[in-house]
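Lab meeting, action items carried over

1. Structure of the two-component assembly. Owner: GW. Status: complete.
Input record:
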Amino acid sequence: MRLIRLLAAMVAGAATLVLTLVLPGRQPGRLRLDRARGAFGLAARGGVRYAANAPRLFAAAGEQRQLLREDLALQTAEDVADTLGAMKGVMMKIGQMASYVDDGLSPAVRHTLARLQDSVPPMSPDLAAAVVEEELGAPPELVFARWDPRPIAAASIGQVHRAVTLDGRAVAVKVQYPGIAETIAADLRNVALLRRMLRIAAPAQDIGALLSELRDRIGEELDYRREAASQYLMAAYYHGHPTITIPAIIDGLSARRVITSELSSGARFAELASWPQHERDLAAETIYRFTFRSLYEVRAFNGDPHPGNYLFHPGGKVTFLDFGLVRHFTPAELQPLMAMARTICVEHDPEAFRASLEKAGFLRPGAPLSTEAIVEHLAVFYDTIREPGPLTITSDYASSVVRRFFDLRSPVAAYIAVPQPYVILQRINLGLFAVLGELSATADWRAIAEEIWPFTHGPAATAMGQAEAAWQAHRQAAAA
Amino acid sequence: MPARELVSLTDTADLYATATGLIERSAAAYASGVPGGTGDDGFFGPASVTWRMSADLASPVAGLRSLLMQALHPLAMAGVDQHSGWRRDPVGRLAATTAYLATVTFGERAAARQAAARVRRIHDHVRGTDAVTGRPYAAGDPALLLWVHGALVDSALAAGSLVGTALSAADGNRYVAEMVTAAELTGVPRHLVPSNIPELDLYIASVRPTLRCTPAAAESMAYLLDPPGMDEDTAEIWQDLRDAAIAVLPRWARQMYGYDAPPPLTPGRRTEIRQSLGVLDALFLGQPGVLEARQRITLRMRAGRPA
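Predicted assembly:
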């Protein structure tokens, strides 16, 4: 599928913050159910393990250094303003988000946004060090036991350095370009121009809600403390999880423009494609569980399901990176999503489904449409979870979902709107399907959904589900 | 020259080619004008103010203002109007100017000389009589070439200081002095060319009494300020460029054209204009070869910068 190829290509580019470390010699193995127990053990002696692994992780991060135009490095805050000021930083961010749903963009716009990302070189070592010093109070050579002055990866509004903390942990330090937060904040205030840009980029789309949501989310990304808080929340929730790993945020080394987290290793998405189907299914199951557990239990949705933000290990273990674009939901905002899923998938009640759509603001009340037509139009989004049984998510299915989302010719489309809280969610959902489709992943998605849905709380449907149940029992016991 | 080309403003829409491909073709012209950097540094070089100016976000504003100023010279305008065929291919005409400027600025000396010689040869054939003033003109006339030059240099300074990166007084004078060579290449004797800001100001004041907005100037500039064939949203962004060019015009030039005084360039308005310029620049950057050309320039400027 074109979308995924584009995303995969972007992994190699300067698009995202990722530490895509491939450790040589690791082969996929089989899922071992005792991993859950093992994970608890590891967590308990985590400090020791990280200290022991630090040199290896630090070295691996250097070997996988992303090719950056250090010869063009930005040397001053003025260089940053010239490169990312005057809307360019904002356009780059929009491009990054829009890339998940490229079917809505013309090839020329996609190309322009990609070039814009290519046009941003890293900071010079001195400039990056100056930001660290301003944020953490001392130069990086003093704050860290080891500090690599050369960045190992680009991030959208910053770059990543590898380092070792004074207590011996190998870490990734994301450093924000100086002045970029202020210039992007100012640029986000020019709503008229943003509207024009979005209309040029995606002429067929209803951009009202999208614009508001993009402004909010991009604005949030400017303060790394928010990202640290999101990642902290996720890491705390998934602590000890059998297959989901969230790198820990290092307290005291994270600030507005600097965020420090544990360095991770694992295979890249592109490499996963060469693993046996069994492994791909397990990885997909973990991604699926992570997505919907985060939504329903943490009330947070990672809006950056970029394939470059996953690191894979055998047995379906996945490390999730980059929490810069996390949407937090209130219980009231989640309620309609659950009502929709429940009415169409569990109760099989078309009229109740229609009512829940109207209540949530997805469908204009009193639209002159038959309920059958509405269900017909929207059911495709629920196809994987309407009935129990194993089902393979194919690229064709993912494409059909995307096409339906952007299908404005349907008579139903005129009455459909995506309310602001769900704009990113809807689009990123498409990105999730694209990832699962690229893996040709098979599972009983409905049974997994029933495990996670708060209104069903079904029994463990898979081996991973059993391991997850054990993890949850352990969590609850620990909390009690 | 056939009089039918001096048409009134009301029924000209069909005569114009649209501005389709303006950004694409200007970008191609620019990219082709920036060499790989294996030869000499050209007439200006990486340490010059001229190179720095050409990279400024305000460049399109400077370009547009410069055309607005140049067009006020009836004889210069008549030469363009009666010979260049801009109505048939306005985009090609602008792209040719872009290519020329890029080559003279960044090209090796031989390439710059060659481009200038080609322009001088073309100018040899551009002669006629201006229908408005009844005066004869020749494009190779140093007086006309000097006006075109002076308007360009003055516009770069004005646009830079109001919407771009302002130069220090010393750098401004250096820029004017550096650009003397550009005038010389087109055929103006060196001693006639202003070589600092006060001289440039005096020169422009001295030409001012001969300037006026002829129908050809009004017509061609109306086209430039609101190019047909752009989609609505791009056209709205172009409006900010147009407003900026008009805002940085001298008041007397605005009055000659009959433009309304633009909203004052408050810091907020200046920011908005720069944001629109940034979007246009991103579109430009998205064209083949532009990013690479800029990277070549940056690397050469860094190499030339004292450590």
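2. GW to write a short summary for the group page. Key points so far: Chain A is about 50% helix and 10% strand. Residues 277-298 of chain A form the longest helix (22 residues).
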